[in-house]
Design a protein that fits this description.
Layout: H1 2-6, H2 18-43, H3 48-76, H4 94-98, E1 110-115, E2 120-125
Antiparallel strand pairs: 1-2
């Protein structure tokens, strides 16, 4: 139990092979795309323009994932090792980003604001 909090079982990013780093990038693109899709679905009714922005972001993540998979096939073959954020010591935990304070994504406790002209995004409590 203590190891869950102390990161004893997690690997250092510096100890990953090139193939594992590529697998991690593929996994991250997939996770991020799903997060953006979830945001879009939950915002669609009240904020359709913002939802569409998240759909576009998810599509972009999916395109990145496809490029990385093609690169993996070219360099290492079809079998992609399972390496995820939570396997790496000190790596950004996506759950903390889209589920702050343990709230389910279905009812996010914040509002998202974006200005595409200035390329910034802000999350603030509601």
């Amino acid at each position: 139990m203590l190891s869950r909090f102390m990161n004893f079982n997690k690997r250092s990013f510096n100890n990953l092979s090139q193939q594992e780093i590529l697998a991690l990038a593929i996994s991250n693109e997939e996770d991020d795309g799903r997060i953006y899709q979830s945001f879009a679905e939950n915002l669609r009714e009240d904020y359709p323009d913002t939802a569409n922005m998240f759909v576009e972001m998810a599509e972009e993540e999916n395109e990145h994932r496809r490029w990385l998979i093609d690169l993996h096939r070219e360099k290492y073959g079809e079998i992609i090792p399972l390496v995820r954020r939570e396997h790496i010591r000190g790596f950004f935990n996506a759950k903390g980003f889209y589920q702050p304070f343990g709230f389910a994504i279905e009812k996010p406790p914040y509002m998202f604001a974006a200005d595409q002209g200035d390329n910034f995004a802000v999350f603030f409590p509601v």
